# Entry
Amino acid sequence: MHAEIHGDGMPVLFLHGAGVAGWIWRQAASEVREAHDNLQTIAVDLPGFGRSAASTYPGADATVAELSDLIRDRGPAVVVGFSLGSQLALRLASLAPDLVRGLVWISGETRPTPFPWATGVGAGAAAALGRVPAFASRQATQAGVPVPLRSEYL
# Structure
């Protein structure tokens, strides 16, 4: 799993949603570091997305295990998750509470899904569609991805 890591200090782990990648957090991570001296920001590209696109999304449990390994030696992290990332953040906090100092939940489900396997299938499908240039270009426009970030999105 690709991780973009900057700074030193208390870790803040940023987890993106399906259809995007770690680049979506670049500006927020920079602003967090500027506002607080002793922070380390970690923005990952989850398996199947961005610079981890060559990997197949292995499901929530395997992804959470990999995220646990990433932050284990850094100390408890504040975990910021958007959509799919928020689901993974909550699962990480539930399974490894010693690794999570705090949780920021953005646009995540608040009720258990009746078919939990569907999240993994949906994430895999989003990753596959995201590799189709015409679809990705239309999706970037619809989602309002800023022009300077479009090449990374695509």
Q: What stands out?
A: The CA atoms of residues 22 and 45 lie 5 Å apart. The first helix runs from residue 26 to 35.
